[in-house]
Structures are given as C-alpha cells and as structure tokens.
Amino acid sequence: xxxxxxxxxxxxxxxxxxxxxxxxxxxxxxxxxxxxxxxxxxxxxxxxxxxxxxxxxxxxxxxxxxxxxxxxxxxx
Length: 76
Description:
mainly beta, three-stranded antiparallel sheet, single chain
C-alpha cells in the first residue's frame, strides 16, 4: 500500500495518506473531513534509470504537474 500525497478541495491542506488504489476516491482531509484529491508535487521518478517506480519513461522530465504519463496532469 503506497503512501500518497493529497490536497483537500475545501481547506487546501496537503497531507500524506497510506491508502490502497481502490480507496483513492474516499480519502478525507484530516483537518476538515473535506473531499481530497491526489497532489502531484516534486520530481517524477517514473521510468528513470535505477528507479523501481516504473519502466519506459513518462516523458515529463521530472515535472509531474504537466505530465499525462504518470498522472500529474490529469484533471479527473
């Protein structure tokens, strides 16, 4: 089960949550219990040499905020 970063849609709090992929849509903010969504911050390691995060590369160059390959650029 991965430790993922989330952002609250109500209060804007950013927090980490240990959650299975099947429960991503049910994560609630620990501050206000508001609905939260994945927050993509930092460098993308998907497919980088020596990385266990993936294979083949996503092409974002480490900027997950604009990446459609690793999920950082998704609006859903």
